[in-house]
Amino acid sequence: MQTTFVVLGGTGDLTGRLLLPGLAELFTADARARDGDVALLAVSQQDWSDEEYRDWARARLAEHAGHVAEDVRDALVGRLAHQQGDVTAATDLRKALDRAAGRPVVYLALPNTVFLGTLQALTEVDLPEGTTIGVEKPFGRDQADARELNAVLHRLVPEERVFRTDHFLAMQTVLNLLGLRFANRLFEPVWNAGHIERVEIVFDETLGLEGRAGYYDTAGALRDMLQNHLLQQLALIAMEPPQAIDGASLSARKADVLRAVRSPADMARDTVRGRYTAGTVDGRALPDYTSEEGVDPARETETYAEYTVTIDNWRWSGVPFRLRTGKALGTDRQEIAIWFKPVPHLAFGSRGQAEPDVLRMRFDPDHISLEINLNGADDPFELERRSLDIDLPPTPLSAYGLLLAEMLGGERTLSISDVEAEESWRIVEPILAAWSAGEVPLLDYPAGSAGPAAG
Ligand SMILES: NC(=O)C1=CN([C@@H]2O[C@H](COP(=O)(O)OP(=O)(O)OC[C@H]3O[C@@H](n4cnc5c(N)ncnc54)[C@H](OP(=O)(O)O)[C@@H]3O)[C@@H](O)[C@H]2O)C=CC1
Ligand SMILES: O=C1O[C@H](COP(=O)(O)O)[C@@H](O)[C@H](O)[C@H]1O
Questions:
Q1: Per the CATH hierarchy, to which homologous superfamily does domain 3-136 belong?
Q2: Which residues of the sequence carry a binding annotation for NADP(+) (predicted)?
Q3: Pairing of strands 38-44, 3-8
Q4: CB–CB of 325/204 below 8 Å?
Q5: pTM score, whole prediction
Q6: Class of domain 169-446
């Protein structure tokens, strides 16, 4: 059956850098998609003809999908079209949908501030039977906004036809949490407070603002990354074993964890917020965040967010989960690190100091390592630190390629549910309030440094 991705925001950075390359990968993997089953109609306010849009898309694909064969990229370009319009106006949306052949997947690749107006406008349009609606992250600006978005979505299509995107769920390292935990006897028996000391979920970026002030300066690190990508990883790490790897089971188990997350008891102790000042990252000079074009310093937007989470349930009682993310940091440390407790009795006495076992799941390149203590090579009774390492092989589909494939197939394994989206806001809302009330200082850190020191 023919499907048209109606991409609202089809001229944006996300579309050019990630969605179009993902679709090109899908065209490589799925001959039916390439040979006519799938098309894309981009909607934006630009006064562009189809041909002008194709030129733009061809250049984006050359830049970001060089790994896809040129004839496949050309086949995709031939399936693209552009419709000018304001996505918050029902008449414009109707015109766009009239041009969409077959079943539409309406994808909101828009700033989160436009989501509600767009969905409200869609209620005035007769959506064809079988329409799917995809929504980018962050899902709204706060819990009330997320509730309202969910209410309007449910008036438009059933929850099974809503796809709330979090592209981290489709990343190989994150997906491997499922394989590692639930397809091996080894880990699950020790995956609890009895054996795990602490967990870190870290996504440090060397990238700065990269011209995204229009969106980022009203979002900040907490809304941009922690509220969604980091809490989703936490939910997968901490959830109970699902009955099956499908949308319903995963969402239910993740929602249980999110409900058990306690809001910070002491904001100044449990959270850190920071903002980068001028500095050098990888030899590249970055200006002070407040001097970046489009930034309003009065907003006091954070570019670094940290939150040590407590989970109030039997499995995780007393285990801190430290979530940390920031821009313009010195290194791209991007990993999940699980620190195990020491052995109850170390028989080696003074002949070796056992460090805790650490399981690390790293991003880009995707890699899993298990750091353990073994007998030494020189002295067999002396302990030595070794690491079991696995490089995860490259996958044919990037995260966005996989998400598009899910939407095409009507699957929801990697979608976030309505409940999860609202619970995630319930968790971060008290932090947003405390930060904007000045209860936690906004710490400076030079670009290229290790981040702000907790006060
Ligand atoms: N960029 C990224 O790396 C990532 C982005 N995301 C998410 O994707 C979404 C889009 O981000 P991004 O692409 O970076 O943003 P951009 O600002 O680059 O693009 C926004 C797009 O929305 C369109 N748009 C905005 N308002 C309207 C309107 N009223 N009517 C019609 N079109 C409109 C713009 O078109 P026009 O200019 O013509 O108004 C443009 O095509 C956000 O929710 C973001 O959080 C998620 C993961 C990564
Ligand atoms: O959603 C986002 O994710 C990116 C990090 O993900 P990556 O796939 O680009 O590594 C982050 O830079 C961006 O600020 C955020 O909006």
A1: NAD(P)-binding Rossmann-like Domain (3.40.50.720)
A2: 86-87, 137
A3: parallel
A4: yes
A5: 0.97
A6: alpha beta
